Amino acid sequence: MARLADYFVVVGYDLDNRVEGEGQGRILQRFPEKDWEDSPFPQGIELFCQPSGWQLVPERQPASFFVAVLTDINSERHYCACFTFWEGLDSPQLKKVDAGDADEADEEPAVVQHSKLFAPKSLVVVSRLDYTEAFRNCLGLIYTVHVDGLSTPLETVIGNLLTCVIPVAGGSQRTITLGAGDRQVIQTPINDALPVSGSSVAQLFRQLGIVNVLYLFCAALTEHKILFLSSSYQRLTDACRGLLAIMFPLKYSFTYVPILPGKLLEVLSTPTPFIIGVNSFFRSETQELLDVIIADLDGGTVTIPECVHISLLPEPLLQQTQTALSMVLDPELEFSDQAFPPQSMNPSALKIQDKEIRAVFLWLFARLFQGYRWCLHIIRIHPEPVIRFHKAAFLGQRSLTEDDFLMKVLDGMAFAGFVSERGPPYRATDLFDDLVANHVERIRQEEACPHKVMNHVKELAEQLFKNENPYPAVAMHKVQRPSETSQSTDQSRTPFPVLDDVAVQLFIDHAVAKLKSSPPVVKAELKSMVPSGPPLGDIVDRNGNVMANSARRLEVVRNCITYIFDNKMLEAKKLMPAVLRALKGRTARVCLTQELNQHVLQNRAVLDDQQFDYIVRMMNCTLQDCSHMDEHGIAATLLPLVTAFCRKLGAGITQFAYSCVQEHMVWTTMQFWEAMFYSDVQNHIKALYMETDDGNQQDQQDGSGNIREISALELAAEQNRLWPTLSKEMQMERVQKEESTVFSQAIHYANRMSYLLLPLDTSKNRLLRSSGLGDVESVSNSYVTNSIAGSMAESYDTESGFEDAESSDVANSVVRFINRFVDKVCNESGVTNEHLKALHTMIPDIVQMHIETLDAVHRESKRLPPIQKPKLLRPTLLPGEELVMDGMRVHLIPDGRDEATGQMGGPPLLPAEGAIFLTTYRLIFKGTPSDALVGEQIVTRSFPIASLTKEKRISVTLTMDQFVQEGLQLRSCTFQLMKIAFDEEVASDLAESFRKHLHKLRFPQHVQGTFAFTVGQSGKLVLEPKTKDKNQSLKTLSKNLVKNAKRTISRQYVGRKKEVPATWENRSNFQSELDEDEISVSEEVDQSALTLSSTIRSSDRQTMSNVVERACCRDYQRLGLGTLSNSLTRSKNEPFRISTANRMYTVCRSYPGLLIIPQNIPDSTIHRICRCYRQNRFPVVCWRHSRTKAVLLRSAGLHAKGVVSFFKSPNAPTAVPSQADSTSLEQEKYLQAIISSMPSYSESTGRNTLSGFTSTHMNTSESSDKLRQPKIGDLMKQVLGNKEDVPGTFSRGALGQKAKVISLSQPKVSGKARNSPRGKWGSIRGSGRLSAYNPDIGTRLAGKESPQPNGGPNDPLFLRQQKAYLYIIGDKAQLKGGKQDSFQQWEVIPIEVCDVRQVKNSFKKLMKACVPSSQTTEPNMSFLRLLEDSEWMTLLHRVLQVSVLVVELLDTGSSVMVSLEDGWDVTTQVVSLVQLLSDPYYRTFDGFRLLVEKEWLSFGHRFSHRGAQTLGSQSSGFTPVFLQFLDCVHQIHLQFPMEFEFSQYYLKFLAYHYMSNRFRTFLLDSDYDRIELGVLYEEKSDRRNPQVCKSVWDYIDRLNKKAPVFYNYMYSPEDEEVLRPYTFISNLKVWDFYLEETLSDGPPYDWELRSRQESLAEETAEKADTGAPKSQRHIVWPCYDNLSKVMPDAITKLLQDLQNLEAELGQTSEKWKDTWDKIKTTQRTETKLESKPSFSSSLLMSSNLSHQRRSQGVCLQDSRVGSSIKLGLDCEASATSTPVAGRPSTSTLYSQFQSTESENRSFEGILYKRGALLKPWKPRWFVLDKTKHELRYYDSRQDKDCKGVIELSDVESVTVGTPTMGAPKNVEEKAFFDLKTSKRMYNLCAQESSNAQLWMDSIQSSLSDA
Q1: Which contiguous run of DSSP H or E holds residue 886?
Q2: Which of 108, 1187, 1292, 1554 is the most buried if burial means most Cβ atoms within 10 Å?
Q3: Among 409, 408, 416, which Cα is nearest to 365's?
């Protein structure tokens, strides 16, 4: 029985006390005054009566009622029913209020004075029972008595209310009356364990909808913060009550405040979860809560913040729950489409619907928690049951370990409460217990059928409804309401009176006395054994790996174990890989533990070394795939086994398996040990009681008659039932027995833990610290990645000098870990303190003892012969390359590239085992594949250390050993990735020092520390001069030069520190790999022509002569861009001159010493002009068009302040000319000088206009079959984009079809289509990040009309504009605010430049796309998607597009000045590409070298900085601007394969060595830096060490002389050909440099290595046994073999064969180039002699090729006569040499197959053949094919279709014949021969007798061969 009401309180407005202008409430009276002992008076009631604050109002408001819930300190809930009405204030009270207001008048000036104000008053009932309606009626009655002035005294009514007592549960009805003629019936629930919800759940679903409530439900269960908003307080309470009701059987245990007063809103920022309701009035204050889920009941919305992730129910549960709920709430939905819907389909009444919804949730929980009782461990039965839940087993058996929702629920507080409440096996049961025990099977069968589910739900709903309403509703309520009149009249009301407390107290005392005298009510609680339900069956993994658990696999595991124990080691070894694979499946692991168990006798199994090794390996593999939670109990079943299997090491020394399986997370997880301990304790306690019971109670019979073992919980239930019947002594005895059981288990576990936590070599403590054993907090939940201490095997090679000190460290942490474990489990299982203390003293001794035994084992185990591992292979090193660290044994792990792993077909080359070597130049892995079938291959992967971009530690699992190894992932910008795992024999400190060395070599302090400088020198390299004095003078000169430069520069920079980057002064040049060292001058320049100008001081002359010899000067002379002349009177007709103003590098430190400037600009001007440009890089001429004489200039962008003045209109009135103005004037003069130097300017009488653009050379180009050039205007617009472009669209070129970013075939565009502008130019218009150049450009360059739909510009538009003489391509960002001036002759094309950061990031993404670090199956991580995301192709497209625009402008006679960023990145790219496209010279070896030396090296591209080559530039990161340029050249090369003298390999070679630091060419940032280091004018190469080349160019020259590796055989240039490549992304290809790999001998760019490896291979081949037959076939693997070496192209093969033949014959072989040139010249002459010129030869050698033909690739056919060579891309046509009878044709060498003997055509030539009867003799081309064993004949040599075949197997004889009728004349008789086959006789005739003899011999030999 319980009181209906504990307290009655009257709360009113506090007139005396207002805080900060806000009203307060105060308790006017409360009854009883004294607190009840069992329920103290709750604090803060006055706040909850008016949650929105106490306020006076001008109008009376209707009375209100709601129930607030307060939770006290013991988490008991008190229901406060508040009834609030409004009372008018009389005048003295009003005055008080006014006075109060007057004080605050300053703050609130507009206080409205009302004649009448109303104050709220609340009547409150506080109760522990939740009877909302009863409270509403009672308080309403009290109010009615007061208002209507009924005769009953208020004291009586309140007294009756406070003394009313009702039962808590049991289902009885209780009628109560408060003595005012009222009567009401209170209905108690049958079972108070089930929540009473009324209709609040249904109401909640109506307000929010199914999905929203499910979100809230999941959020509440996974402990999120939930806030309800509504303008109704009662609805807030109902919603909270409803949410709690559907959580049953879980109880909410966090903050629960259905109505939160506004004053307490800061509670919402509490860190703990809560369910709180707040009035919508405070909505604005809830907006900034970041982690609170807000449910708006009035608006029906649920708002989930971004940072909150709610785990939802697992599928298919979620779907099924939603279906069931919608069937309850909206039953019509199912039939809404039917033609004849059922008549009555209305949803149930709200109260019933409420129960149906709750039934759905009950059904849901029964499915979620099914079988939970089988995962309860009972660890004590007496005096109280102690129960623990085994979470891992529960999740594992249901294969829900991955399920986020269930994991969180099981970890939550609510579930912990659930276990402690429902865990005990003997207690009262309820609906849920019944459901989860007896209906699981039904639920499982019906879950797929919604109608059956609904029937079940209805049954459950009925039970729930019956629990709340056991009897039919009785209409016995009679409660008075206030009369209408009393409600309407305001004036008549008297305030609520002060009650007589004595009278009320009398009532209470009287009732208490009566209660004391009455007999106590005994509640008969029905306790019973809680049924457990069916056990959890083994549910198959949800990924349904049926294959993984197939019976065949289990058989393999069983067989392998049998072999091991039968000592059939070879058989076991064969099965081992399959077993390790099978052990990925769970059943196989369980099977393994069962099998091993059978081989254990009396807890021990002694094995020999090899058996032990195999068993340990299998155990490791099994544990490897177990998670730290051990959800399948595998580690648990292995735990007894690891202490059973052992091997004898020596006298009395045994090594157990546990010392070899410590490397697993599971052993360091506290939860695992706890679960293991509890399950063992449960088994022992069960055994304890099983013994004490009589034998007949051992087992119970199932219904089916099977005898099943009694479960521990059933046993405990039985014991609990008997407990009260036992005597005190018996009870004590049982308690002690249980406790000693727990205690002995604790000792046992302390031992077990020390076994698995102490490493074999206790001196190794490195891993301990990181493992989390050390820190208390992290253990319980942390995933411990490393094992507790070093692996056992690591101890083989390292000794520790500090045994004692260090081992104690290990011991301490293990002792701490075990102590923590013991404390926890003993406290939970109620072990006495004495026992606990005893345990704590024992543990250190146990650990110490174990350490001592381990030391002996460790000593012995070291003596064992190590397991055979593959021999370490030594890498071949370059001359001058030295080993820094010798080979460390590692495993090379596969990365994201599939080729080498065998997944794309081919052998699995990776993973491989070998060693990693660190040399001064490279990082090399060399080893053999782990797969035994590929074991004889050698795998090499290497990259230069300088190219290392990222190094990251990883931990790797090796398939075979199952150890988690430490590893490194090393990524290189040569598109290589090395994932290595250190073998266990490599000590960790060794691996660490490897990392340090690597880092030191990667980032040397100074550029002189790079390999290019340190190569081949132990000490400092000393130069050996050819002539002593020359070299000395050089040295002193370069010193002077630098000194002068420094002096001048420092002087010049003093005043203008701001504009110059700080790095200039002190950076001792990191970065450019610009090995400008030794430039070879091909032709000796005549000294007299280069006499130095008399202005140069004699001390500098020597330097100047060197400067003159530099690349730039040679090129300027070739272009006719000025000479250095003797006299000051310069030849006036030369528009440009070479200025020596920068010879001391004082003007611009990053420019070369000699610069081309207009003739009439004095050097002094340059000093002034250069200040306007960034880094002082003012415009200089770098190339001149040979025909139009337009020049190409380069400079940096302008300084911001220089821009505006530069473009100011010259007419603007200026005051006194300022410094800036004069500079900008000089600038204008400078540009004007450039313009006037152009012949087109001086010739033109009037202004040139663009309408005259189709000038003569345009017409000539059209008349030839070249492409028509598109209009410049179109180009401009496409480069610049149009203002009106829709921002979100791409034009056709930019990224037209994403799928086809990489098209695999050349576009075959018809000539007609090629002429249209859109087919030719890509567009740089684009959107977002992709668009680079999207500026608003002046109207001069692009009109306003919108572009054509295909992205091509409108044609006639641009033609109206005038042509400028000089176009300046500048940064859009810099040119803002500059006005165009119509009279200037130059024009600015503003474009947005891709900045260096973009290139850097794009390159990073490109590397990840081409060389992914791990395999992924996600569709958005595919290669093409990643390639597109990297935007690398887009950047290439932009650079190429701008370059093509510049080429067009130059070609039409306008000069162009490229003035972008700092003038050393994009500018260099564009300028170089323009020259390459415009000038065929740069497409030769010499020209390309010169181009790179001039534009990249001399003009100061910052190689060292961009390549991050030293410690100083490390932070800036690798930015491959030069690589981007090479990629652009590669794209052009692909489109014009006949225009380049060098091959694609040449570009790859440069790309590789640009990053490798092997040569000095690409080091340092400018000529100045090179002079400073003395590398600019070094000797060609070092005499003492001729192998070491310092310049990449020298190296290429040497190589090129030896072999045709860099040469392009298709080189056949046209004169003066300007290339105009396609720049659409769809026309660009991914460079195979990024994708290819050669695992056989590493990257193919270091030739010494190749030649050495070949010679080694030959030696080994000679040594090999010659007896075995050698196969002629060679298998080629794309990622393994070097294709160019294994399958060389025909010409290379021919040249090689020639050389080999010459070598065999002892002739001196001539150089390949001479041979090739000879062939070309003979072919030319032959071509001229022929009457009918053959198509192919003329195609090959002539130069009037059509543009299309060339860009599409060469299609070569065979000529009738004349020896033409097949070079083409057509592989079918097999060319042959002239058919000179009697000598084998060379065509065999061109065959497409690689073979040692020439196949397919062993002998061929013309023979006359006699036709069938009466037919004449005809010449036929005969081919003898030994391979196919046949003689074929064709009409002619070119003929593809064979006219006939004579099978050699049919030939019977070959005899000399005689001429017959119609035989050819003039042929000697001996030339005839006959071929007799089984079918017929062939009469044949050769051209001469010798030839006939050859034929006969050949055929005869073929026959004998066969």
Answers
A1: strand 883-893
A2: 1554
A3: 409
